[in-house]
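Quick one: structure for this chain?
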Amino acid sequence: MTDFSIEPGDLTGSLDTVFSQLDHDRFVEALWTRRADAWSSEYSVKTAIAERLGWLGAIDFVEAQRTHVDKFVKRVQAGAFTDVVLFGMGGSSLAPEVFHRLFGREDTEPRFRMLDSTDPVAVRDALSHAATSLFIIASKSGTTIEPNSMAAAARRRVEAAGLKDWASRLVAITDEHTPLHDRAVNDAFFDVFVNPSDIGGRYSALTLFGIVPAALIGVPLTPLLERARRMVDACRAKDVRVNPGVALGALIGTAARQGRNKLTLLLPPRLAPLGLWIEQLIAESTGKHGKGIVPIAGETLDAPPGADRVAVAVRLDGVGVDDHVLDRMRSARVPLMIIDMPRVDALGAEFFRWEVATATAGKLIEINPFDEPNVQEAKDATRKLLDAYTSRGTLPRPEPHLVHEGIEVTFSAAAGMTSEVDRFLDLVGAGDYFALLAYLPPEDATVDAPLTAIRNGVAIDKQCATMLGYGPRYLHSTGQLHKGGPNSGVFLVVTAPAPFDIPVPDAPYSFGVLEMAQALGDFQSLDRANRRAAHIHLPDRNPETLIRVGKLLGISQR
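Got it. Here's what it folds into:
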């Protein structure tokens, strides 16, 4: 399967050396025999890696589960459900999100909906048909605070409608013997799917976490899995130069070693959702111990490519970004891979290609691509803030360094300023990236448009790589890179009160409080990690107020 081409740019000699190194190390053989020493010689690290390589056999596992999945879909379709709502975060939600955006239809029932936000507006919208919905709780650990809170709110809505058969409206996707698994069995959920425990969340797209929602959405599983199987076979090729996953990983890993660690994804509009999934896989897998590859998805293509870039362009059925974009990359000698995806049901194949690529790149930059050592920090900070709220009745917040027309601004210590917010972006230097992190409804176009304008303005004015993430989603995605990766990010956390709030049942706080605690907790974690960061708290969510943020920062509005 040769569906890609590499234009190494200024990496020609380095890439050849890496290919030879991978051949010498017999990396493909080590990968498929699941030898953890391919990534580390340290005993504890090897032990941990050995427990995370189940994704290599995910297709075999899923194909053995097809009868269960198919029967489940028929039961759902035969029921009286108008909606199916999935509660999940990170690896439990991003693959379903991609399937939904690429294959989903709004003119069929039951409609598929997703909730991976604690924002009260997003929660309200997802539960708008609670009385006639089936709910899927997707959580590897079974203890994730967001989906558990969402499920509690859904139960409150269902019971308020006078319906008592709550468990018969629930589906669990989790690992064996988690609290969620035990509850699903004891309470007789509508169904329960048990995933292998040796597969990390971000590598679970081709497991039950991805395939069960895909089946409900209407994705044709047989061709999807057949094409994924072909990619699995292609990624067994011992010649690393033609192995589609290893060659991709070699390119981006070599680029990162040469200082080109901004992985620019050039995707046609229809494939834009795939960028969110790749973003998590790359960022959470590689961003640790001061190293990392920074994935850039959905960025304006008007900014000139810098010397810190490597690019991957994907064409779907021959359609990709404009040729002039690729020509600009070539002119700047940006290393480039072009991937030809023949049809949309090759999505599963792309999932597997990128998983192999990430494992390969992790070897090259000498990190364990299967752990996430810094993710827990923000969770712990959030829990401490919620405990403080429970005892005091308010969230502890530092006094803002300045207030401008109702907009409160707080800086991290590393930002080194207490005023002049219009100089905050002066902190962005050569090789840096800017991340806009918004705790706002992720599906609200009136919010997304001004935030995208801010992002694009920074990209052009500062000529740097940029990211836009919605909290708390990004905490389970790029958050690991932000705290554990190279200290080359400049972060802007944006919060604003929702027009209403929703209590979290059986908890002493609301979704609005939980969302703010997550934002404050992450800002604290960025501060402790010596990151250049600012927190802007807005008085409201009006688009005009968001536009004022760009003006306050002194950037062009585009």
